[in-house]
Amino acid sequence: MKTADLLLVGGGLASGLLALRLKEAKPALKVVILEKDARLGGNHTWSFHDNDLSGEQRKFLHPMVAHHWPHQSVRFPGLERTLSAGYNSIPSGRFHDVLTKALGEDQIRFNAPVREIAATSVRLDDGTELEAGAVVDASGFKPDPALRIRFQSFLGLELRIAGGHGLAMPVIMDATTPQDSGYRFTYLLPFSADAVLVEDTGYLDDAALDIAGLERRIADYCSGRNWTVQEVVRREQGVLPIALAGDPAHRNRQHAAPQIGLAGAFFHPTTGYSLPDAVRVADVVAALDQLTPDALRQRIDTLSAALWRDRRFFRALNRMLFLAGRPEDRWRVMQRFYRLPQPLIERFYAGSLTPLDKLRILSGKPPVPVGEALRALIQTPAEDTRIHA
Ligand SMILES: Cc1cc2nc3c(=O)[nH]c(=O)nc-3n(C[C@H](O)[C@H](O)[C@H](O)COP(=O)(O)OP(=O)(O)OC[C@H]3O[C@@H](n4cnc5c(N)ncnc54)[C@H](O)[C@@H]3O)c2cc1C
């Protein structure tokens, strides 16, 4: 007997947004999320820029957005800049609450780890087999030989600062921090007058997180700002993929069920952020007439291939960031980027650069050795679609 019309493996960002979108668009459809843990969304603060999404898409997310700021800023050794670009944050606690209320108990199974995925069924760790009209894998990022990646890794501490932190807006990058082994910056989200999320972030070659070292960097950063930490309210950490080259479409075809979210490589190549893509995927799936395995596979794989193709330029830039120049000089690439016009910066994050934007980003003398920059830009595009060969 069928458990559902659609089974979603994993109850994280991509799965939750798809289930919610389907609830609106196709209320009669029975969608069931299978989550291995006891909550939806794990422990994250998911942020996005206003311009990453359309007005309709922002409206869809609105109930989950706990913080919106009309401005954001960046700080480099030779540049401080405020951008009049809105920024939003969704705490995973709010995500869990909104989804459990909207979907109801019969649409979510907690503590249900999936061991095997097929096109129309799954097997749980305890051996139970569940059948469905179709299955989608949204179980998050797995290392993959079809992708050549580096890492954006971070530790975030939500802190209460005695007497307040004095920040008026998010600081997306404060790269005045010590630069070693890669591009390093502190990311700050002021949640209230005295609560702030302080994330020490690195664009690094290595996936390992040195938690003690990151805690020390955050403590140093706070004392540099004369902040007295009263309390560590919450912690989060992550190691996100930054794509240099690869071919996820080839990889996706090897799987029994279509993959969304990080499992399907739906992320911005340079930031590793997947929220805007998760909304896009939810929209295209909700627009399908029939959610058959073939229709889902066709639509999801086509979108994945199109996005991957369109984002070739970002992967070339990532190669320049990671492969050219000394790791401790990589911040110069980002400082130079942040001198460009604001609309271009917004289009960069939205993944919608125009040909002229690309020219502007590449024009002038690169802030890393010219020969190395050129090699990084042009050396591997052929490999870009042949990593799996
Ligand atoms: C701390 C952190 C902060 C981030 N901040 C941002 C941000 O600000 N903006 C942004 O766009 N991106 C951000 N990202 C990157 C990315 O968008 C997130 O990792 C996002 O959660 C990925 O969504 P997903 O649905 O692919 O995977 P996840 O949200 O990780 O969901 C996967 C789910 O599947 C479950 N699962 C895994 N295996 C199984 C199994 N076998 N059976 C059942 N369930 C399973 C997991 O428990 C998890 O709940 C952040 C990542 C981290 C780690």
TrEMBL record:
Residue stretches spanning the membrane: none
Signal peptide: none
Any GO MF annotation of the entry: lycopene beta cyclase activity
Keywords annotated in UniProt: Isomerase
Enzyme nomenclature, EC number: 5.5.1.19
InterPro entries: CrtY (IPR008461), FAD/NAD-bd_sf (IPR036188), Lycopene_cyclase_b/e (IPR010108)
Pfam family name, one: Lycopene_cycl
Record GO biological process: carotenoid biosynthetic process
Keyword hit for Protein biosynthesis: no
Gene3D superfamilies registered for this protein in UniProt: FAD/NAD(P)-binding domain (3.50.50.60)
Similarity-based family: Belongs to the lycopene cyclase family.
Protein name as it appears in the record: Lycopene beta-cyclase CrtY
Source organism of this protein record: Tianweitania sediminis
Gene encoding the protein: crtY
